[in-house]
Amino acid sequence: MKIPHDRLKSLVASVFAAAGCRPPEPERIAHYLVEANLVGHDSHGVIRVPSYIQWLREGKVLANQKLLTVFENEVIAIVDGQYGFGQTMGEEAMRLGIEKSNRHGVAIIALRNPGHLGRIGDWALMAARANKLSLHFVNTSGVGILVAPVGGIERRLSANPVAAGIPVKGRAPLVWDISTSVIAEGKIKVALNKGVPVPDGSIIDSQGRPTNDPKVFYGPPPGAILPFGGHKGYGLGIVAEIFAGALTGGGCSNPTASRLTNGMLAIILDPKLFQTEDDFAAEANRFIAYVKSSAKAAPGAEIVMPGEPEEKTRAHRLQNGIELDDTTWSQIAATCRSLNVPVVS
């Protein structure tokens, strides 16, 4: 089924309001979840609503929390999300970082113990829209252990996203947002709900054998996701784990964890600290044009910058609506009914 984005956003906000979130939190959660669908990252979109509500009911995520400042100076802040919704904690942490970089040109924010932060590209985009460059390393507490190390077959790492945002005058920001695993777990869940296989080389079963079946990944016994590019993705995942977990104080992936929290280390830079805004934009645009001028690998091939596919998908879905598979929609509808929220499609 297809549903207009504004109608879907209103429905999701109503769900979280009925679950006890006070304004502006319901609208904030709805905005970021629906935005993920709009840009084509359905794995981090409204498919998460039933899980978020279940975690809220179980006390694994808490409504209406505020950031707790653990340490702060002119350019560094260590903040604790106190198990609040990641959409709230992530936005507050980024606002703090942007404010610091406005004053001092640079900021480093170490965020520990927020709930699921959603699509990390949103935080890179938030900085870019404030004319800041940013780099983000993210891990999970341990409930999100999903990825086997190179040479192993058991889950030991989180999917550990790494993201960056770059504002470029005269064009949409560049937004790079990847998982250090071949596939994000949310995309496996999307495949499961749609009843389709995952791509070759993405996951293994509990014995280390390749599989395309998302059911096999979830088990029992569970399988694992593979790092992208072998040692390259594995090494980047280790770096992200240490930066986002050990350094922030939130902890690295730990099998004893009982709730899903993220850690995020965000480095935010004001380009005006380094050179004039016009000089930076001119060089960035020159380089982008140079890359795009390459001879094409095939007729009709397109050379795209990070973030361009998402912008194209967003424009299409704003006009045509967001398509949800029947399983995802039925799960959201069941959550609505459990909270006495009218289901409007």
Written overview of the protein:
This protein is an alpha+beta fold. The protein has a single domain (2-274, 323-338), classed as Malate/L-lactate/L-sulpholactate dehydrogenase, NADPH binding domain (Ribosomal Protein S8, Chain: A, domain 1). Helices cover 40% and strands 15% of the residues. It has helices spanning 5-18, 25-38, 49-57, 86-104, 121-129, 185-194, 214-218, 231-246, 277-292, 308-320, 326-338, and strands at 2-3, 68-72, 76-80, 106-112, 133-140, 162-166, 174-178, 203-204, 210-211, 224-225, 262-269, 322-323. It has a seven-stranded mixed β-sheet. A three-stranded antiparallel β-sheet has the order 9-8-10. Helix 1 (5-18) runs antiparallel to helix 2. The longest helix is centred in the N-terminal third of the chain and has 19 residues, at 86-104. It is globular. The model has no long low-confidence stretch (mean pLDDT 96).
Strand and helix map with partners:
Blueprint: E1 2-3, H1 5-18, H2 25-38, H3 49-57, E2 68-72, E3 76-80, H4 86-104, E4 106-112, H5 121-129, E5 133-140, E6 162-166, E7 174-178, H6 185-194, E8 203-204, E9 210-211, H7 214-218, E10 224-225, H8 231-246, E11 262-269, H9 277-292, H10 308-320, E12 322-323, H11 326-338
Parallel strand pairs: 3-4
Antiparallel strand pairs: 1-12, 2-3, 4-11, 5-6, 5-11, 6-7, 8-9, 8-10
Helix pairs in contact: 1-2
